[in-house]
Specification:
By secondary structure, the chain is of the alpha+beta class. Helices cover about 20% and strands about 35% of the residues. It has a five-stranded mixed β-sheet, with no helix packed on it. It has a four-stranded antiparallel β-sheet with strand order 1-4-3-2, with no helix packed on it. A four-stranded antiparallel β-sheet has the order 8-7-11-12.
């Protein structure tokens, strides 16, 4: 890494130059380093994390005023806002393969009477139809996995969707999600859901 005085015939320089060098500075000096094309690998584990962060941050707006207020004690403990306490709590749960929650006090409820995930369409273009008959809880987070090797898996690398937009038509919650597979390989689909208070995950029965 070269240290510079008067880079580019100026007193200061920042950013890339001709996609050959990157100029910047720290608290001591200006410097230059070789330009590298930014990488966005989007590995399966990175995509699992991104889908979790996206789901959790997006659905803060689902919370009622009363539910948002339940995050205040944790926010006070962490020295942050209720929103950031909610994010921190749920991002850690997501990383540990646990369901997110609208409230820090987790509640376990009974499973639904019946559930179903039906796959339609022609590979690689699938239509994934979810149906949940639930007299005891409102489904909040639905995870759908596509694994080319095993019939039932909840491995992070195979998560393809994390959603919460089911339509309620008493007594069913239903929704259809399009998904285009990266290849024309045959896939096994599995799905699970949780309530809005932290779970546990409940399996959705899958049929072709």
């Amino acid at each position: 890494m070269a240290r510079l005085i008067g880079p580019l015939f100026s007193l200061d320089a920042r950013g890339q130059f001709g996609q050959t060098l990157i100029y910047s500075k720290n608290h001591r000096t200006n410097y230059a380093k070789p330009y590298k094309i930014p990488q966005d690998d989007k590995t399966p584990l990175q995509m699992y994390t991104r889908r979790g962060v996206g789901f959790i941050s997006k659905h803060w707006t689902d919370l009622t005023t009363e539910e948002k207020a339940t995050w205040q004690p944790l926010a006070d403990e962490l020295g942050t806002s209720p929103y950031h306490a909610y994010l921190r709590f749920n991002n850690r749960r997501w990383a540990d393969l646990l369901p997110p929650s609208k409230q820090p006090d987790l509640v376990t409820l009974n499973a639904a009477d019946s559930t179903g995930l039906t796959t339609n369409g022609t590979k690689p273009n699938y239509q994934l139809e979810v149906a949940i008959n639930t007299p005891t809880l409102t489904p909040w987070c639905i995870q759908i996995f596509a694994d080319p090797t095993e019939p039932v898996t909840y491995d992070k690398q195979y998560l393809i969707l994390a959603v919460s937009d089911l339509t309620f038509d008493d007594p069913l919650y239903t929704q259809t999600y399009p998904w285009t597979a990266p290849t024309e390989t045959d896939y096994y689909f599995t799905a699970r859901y949780s309530n809005s208070q932290g779970g546990p995950w409940l399996e959705i029965e899958t049929s072709a």
